[in-house]
Amino acid sequence: MLNSDYAIYRIPMAQVNSNLYFVRWENEGIIIDTGMPGNARKICDFMKRCDLIKVNGIILTHYHIDHAGSAASLRRITRAPVLAHEEDEPYITGERAPEHIDLMPNDMKKAYSKYRATVVDKRLRDGDKIFGFTVIHVPGHTPGSIALYDGKALFSGDSLNIINGKVQGDPGYGADREGTLSSMEKLIELNCEILLPGHGCPIENTASSSE
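Below the sequence we write its predicted structure tokens.
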């Protein structure tokens, strides 16, 4: 199965400067976030170039369109399960409409017309262990926002972002401002070798990029 030695690959999504990541163990791995709708082919082409044969899971840090937009297509193509926090599940499955669309950038607003809902195969909770990472529930940006942490790498979703080289929190359209600040403080207190944000470049230059 999966061991503790892995490589991280970042694919920047230029439309809204968001990121998705691969964590790779030999020729298999996991996808963390999926970009906007319509990016499944780009992601699959990148996997082929990297000889990544098997995808063990598609993990969504939160339900927003720039992170979950291609989840349905990737699930169909890779046959990998989708994992997300239970509080964001209704938005991912389409049972509940996304919140605060009026505060989002225009590209994200328009993209919701192309969103394809998908099932959540595994509901996550705070403290769950998945693929060697601990799930940290960081509500605020969305009710079910999560980060993934293994003591070395911290995948922060949009609870921490890197803007102009500086660590920042929610980009401005979170559901709960007080919760966002509390979650940001929780993540900043963690020691990590590399911070891999939802937007912007990782802090340490150890994540490989497709660019």
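The chain has one domain: 7-203.
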